[in-house]
Write a structure and sequence with these properties.
The protein is mainly alpha-helical. It has helices at residues 2-59, 70-89, 112-125, 138-152, 157-175, 197-217, 219-232, 241-253, 260-266, 270-282, 284-292, 304-312, 320-323, 330-335, 341-356, and strands at 300-301, 328-329. The chain has a two-stranded antiparallel ribbon. Helix 4 crosses helix 5 (157-175). It is globular.
Length: 357
């Protein structure tokens, strides 16, 4: 009997050794879950607070701080990041799809009204200045200008049409398709295509170099351009929709239009084409290098500065796992641009509407 008791005791001790690490791991995991949940609740509370503060200031007509949208933006990033960390720790928290088409692992559909309020506040903070010169045909202007520039760069009609469609996507990416807006997060970038003063001047200078070709190809568009130039004379050209779109395209994108035949072969999805041209806006140097590499999708960036620029534009910005990335291929970058999908889908719908007319 004593021997039997010793055997039972030994088995029990072995069982304790086998179970204890598992129990410890479970307790650690539960602690991580609790920490993630608390972090999300804090981030959500902070987001609600900054939304309420900015709404109160606006309704009371109080002076707003410099860059009044930055605190809202950072609070929104924190909410999405904290929710992704929570669903990483507790996959059961992944809920239903949401109207913003954000992957459900990153966003709780129950807080959709907060994002609606976020958008309304930005509409107020970024309203065009007095005297901004709107167009009655803002979307068609983008398509027509881009197609004319592409033709001047030697593109065939079908590829010139692709340039128009892609450029309409840029308009939605930069301003959600709103004309002449200011920028709640920057004192530099303004207008329909969100350019800085030097970018606007550079684009205008490049336009002067090809305006003769444009006049020969499309006299009607050239006449419209002369009219808009006269209307914008003596003002900031970034707040005339036509001239800002024209100068923005000429500054950053016109030279890349020549690459469209190859781009559409590599990226047959029109939304991915729009994403690539948006990356010309966000990280122009590595994107140009990727296009020249001959292996666009596998071209990899690892510069901390470039990764920072991507994160500042909502790419690899949410959650610890994404933010820990030190490099990414263009295939991965395009896949991570999911916040742009809804904007580009709207651009595609608007483009189809323009073409139907």
């Amino acid at each position: 009997m004593p021997a039997r008791r010793h055997i039972i005791a030994a088995i029990a001790a072995l069982g304790l050794l086998l179970v204890t690490p598992a129990v410890s791991r479970a307790q650690t995991h539960n602690a991580k879950q609790s920490e993630a949940l608390a972090a999300y609740e804090r981030a959500l509370g902070d987001f609600k607070a900054v939304l309420a503060e900015r709404r109160k200031q606006i309704e009371a007509k109080q002076p707003l701080p410099n860059l009044p949208g930055q605190a809202l933006y950072l609070a929104r990033v924190a909410v999405i990041s904290a929710y992704k960390d929570l669903t990483d720790a507790m996959p059961s928290r992944i809920g239903r799809p949401n109207k913003f088409e954000i992957p459900p692992a990153y966003f709780d559909a129950d807080i959709e009204p907060l994002i609606d309020e976020y958008s309304k506040l930005f509409d107020i903070m970024e309203a065009p200045p007095a005297g901004a010169q709107d167009s009655r045909t803002p979307f068609k202007d983008v398509v027509d200008l881009a197609a004319a520039i592409a033709r001047a760069k030697g593109l065939a009609p079908d590829h010139a049409e692709a340039a128009g469609r892609i450029s309409l996507g840029l308009f939605f990416a930069e301003t959600n398709g709103k004309q002449n807006v200011r920028n709640g997060r920057s004192n530099t970038y303004m207008g329909s295509f969100q350019t800085g003063p030097s970018e606007d001047r550079n684009g205008r200078r490049k336009w002067e170099d090809i305006k003769g070709q444009i006049a020969a190809l499309d006299p009607e568009l050239s006449a419209r351009d002369e009219k808009e130039e006269a209307r914008a004379r003596g003002t900031d050209h970034r707040f005339n929709h036509w001239t800002n779109v024209r100068n923005g395209l000429m500054n950053a994108h016109a030279d890349i239009f020549r690459e469209i035949p190859g781009i559409v072969k590599t990226l047959p999805d029109p939304i991915n084409q729009m994403k690539l041209f948006e990356l010309i806006q966000i990280v122009p140097t590595p994107t140009r290098s990727a296009l020249k590499s001959g292996d666009l999708l596998n071209y990899r960036v690892s510069s901390p500065t470039i990764m920072k620029h991507l994160r500042n534009n909502s790419i690899f910005a949410f959650g610890q796992a994404d933010r820990a990335r030190t490099s990414a291929s263009y295939r991965e970058i395009l896949a991570a641009m999911w916040l742009f999908n809804r904007k580009f889908e709207r651009a595609m719908a608007k483009y189809a509407e323009i073409k139907a007319r």
